[in-house]
Amino acid sequence: MRVLICGINYAPDLIGVPKYNTELAESLVLRGHEVRVVTAPPYYPDWTVPEAYRRMWYAGETLNGVRLTRAPIYVPGRPSGGKRLLHHASFAVTSIAPVVWHALRFAPDVVFAVAPSLLSAPLAAAAARLCGATSWLHVQDLEVDAAFELGLLRNAGARRAMLAAERTILRRFDRVSTISPPMMRRLREKGVAAERLREIRNWVDTAAIDRRDRMTAIRARLGLGERDIVVLYSGAMSRKQGLDLVIEAAARTASAQPRVHYVLCGNGPHRAELEALAAGRPDVHFLDLQPAARLPELLATADIHVMPQRAEAADLVLPSKLSGMFASARPIVVMAAPGTGVAQETEGAGLLVPPGEADGLADAILRLAADPALRRQLGTEARLRAERLWDRLAIIRKIEREFVASGRRIPIAGDAPVPEKNL
């Protein structure tokens, strides 16, 4: 099978959409398929392009058997709503030439576009028609809904126009997939027919991330001992995460339980403000994003995972970090209203807190800190849930089967004889 992936995010970026684009491409190569990727230079979550990738023109490279073409883009240092639109528009323009070239010369069986960025998706659909391939749009974020519901954009006329454009784009693809049941419902409401729609979750390597001893080298480096309770957040640091609520919760738990420590691991445009907010607090620790090889150790460092979230973001995205939290067999405190997708995913494996309530977050953390048996119970269910719903190998196999079933020119074939440990 030949697959052309079009998406703005790819390795060496470490978290979120880049991780899944990269792992999908590399897993398909390991299973005997040819994969080409048109993407941009790395920039996320710091919103800055590393020196080695600061080129004004196109660059090609091969990573782990995947041939990449990187198209130049505009990356704003402080991304606002308008600047984000310009950022995505720049990739939509600069990716035209490589996408068309690969469509004609590589002749893919499937053209797989990933949103974000939705602005570049019409090009992928057109390229698929140009070469007779199946066109597939995978929606990681409901970008238009998120931009307005989170207040990044506000003009009502622009919203109507963008929603109309979104509906037009969605109709152009043979297949549309997304990562959670609530997002599936939203796409059906936007007019995507059920027979064209698929649920493809983000995944976790349940063999690599598993139940481990909590006394890690990271904990030792932070000067934390066996009696200390570590509350961990790991991921991007932007305003939509609501991480200031974690700092507020730390102020509330300090007097009741001084051995509770908060570790915020990640980078992003909001980190400096968070560090200033936590200045002078010995119970709040910051770490840079850890290399992928250290992620299992990082997640094992936690006694409790925390996932703050703004109420407006409910059902617009299913945070990818959730799968790793589950796999690490630790309980999760999630800010989500009952009935939302995140709440349904977490129920029985963690505690729910109303979005925006720092007091509720502090109370949930104190409850778990005082009850090791409850932590074990919730963590055990979290691990079982990861194995049942989020296993990487099972989901990659599902994607491969769907590609074969939908492909216009793809012969049905058995699995390539590849050791599963490599997938």
UniProtKB/TrEMBL annotation:
Gene3D superfamilies: Glycogen Phosphorylase B. Residues 217-384 form the Glycosyl transferase family domain. Residues 16-203 form the Glycosyltransferase subfamily 4-like N-terminal domain. InterPro entries: Glyco_trans_1, Glyco_trans_4-like_N, Glycosyltransferase_grp1. NCBIfam families: PRK10307.1. This is WcaI family glycosyltransferase.
